[in-house]
# Entry
Amino acid sequence: MISVEEALTHVFALITPLGTEQVALAQASGRVLRAPVTAQRDQPPFAAAAMDGYALSAATSPQTSYRVIGEAAAGHAFAGRVGTGEAVRIFTGAPVPEGADCVVIQEDVTRDGDTITLTEDRVAARHIRPQGTDFSAGDQISAPRRLRPSELAWLAAMNCANAHVSRRPDVAIIATGDELVMPGEDPKPDQIIASNAFALKAMAEAEGARARILPIARDNEASLRAVLDLAADADMIVTIGGASVGDHDLVGPVTHAMGASRAFYKVAMRPGKPLMAGRLEGALLLGLPGNPVSSIVCGHLFMRPALRAMQGLGAYPMHSATATLACDLPANGPRTHYMRATLGPGGTIAPHPDQDSALLGVLCQADALLIHPAGDGARKAGEQMRYILV
Ligand SMILES: Nc1nc2c(c(=O)[nH]1)N[C@H]1C(S)=C(S)[C@@H](COP(=O)(O)OP(=O)(O)OC[C@H]3O[C@@H](n4cnc5c(N)ncnc54)[C@H](O)[C@@H]3O)O[C@H]1N2
Ligand code: MOO
# Structure
């Protein structure tokens, strides 16, 4: 058995980042930007009013009354110059006219015809956004990075209509087992519903992949081969179950017979011990254990970082943070334990009392995986421990 860290290093070594494509900005949500974007202009492109009011020069004409000589609205600049004793009615987002050095908000002004009178003794704030305060022409958005909603607006503001992004990884998910039927089917008394693929598909899609659930492979070589053949064009093949040492655990032998390379089998983690990784033709092959929580924990720890690496985001484990243990923990065994846990007020974390890897209900109550490292001793409530958000 190798450590989780070693296993992840092996997985990353099996990955070459995917190619790129150009997509319209409206289609770029969640994609990974692979080439830097250069701003085509300053933002704002002119000194802009930050409030509705009157533009005037407080420095050169510090009087209390001004004559209104025109108007500037967003998209409609005032063409002239503001002179001594003059003001321009201005609206948020409009270019500040030449000669003005501040915008007095309309709440601080009384107006009578074309004359305004300031009601405050002094101009407290300029309310002007100088040209280029957000970014200047030539500024770059670095790559790689995930395009979140805010980055999409940033690219748009830079007048970038298309983005150079990573191709979406194609993920084929294969559940294996004679006991499985799909949700909505009519299970026999000795059958259960295949659930894990739905979690893994959602997880892969949240990482920017295109994921498909293939037909369930039965516990015989011909069936597993036939379904694996359907995944021939995938970038990543994720099998679920059939990974252990039982007579019906065929994923290892069958993929081996089909020419798969194997980087490792069995990881010192709990749950998820019988995890396997390799390559099958053009695809990264992840063989996940069948227990629902085991497969989902492996998805978080291995599939998600692998999908990020494929999209060019680099080789990094899932982010972990620290929290204060809410109760005592007994010493851990030789496998790192990813305990289903709940974050509480004041930065505490409480592991669930039942850590059986078959319990989806417990996983759904959890918002974190508390990491109890392999071989770590007993821990006391109040100690700091690391966790991963799930
Ligand atoms: N003698 C040993 N037995 C087992 C070992 C071991 O080291 N020695 N390891 C145990 C561990 S740890 C795990 S995890 C499981 C993993 O086994 P498999 O990957 O072969 O998984 P299966 O036997 O196919 O299934 C386990 C369990 O999960 C259910 N399952 C499978 N696929 C799905 C699915 N798509 N959706 C929902 N549930 C699924 C399956 O019915 C079983 O109940 O092996 C231990 N055994
Ligand atoms: O490691 Mo198994 O994955 O404990 O349930």
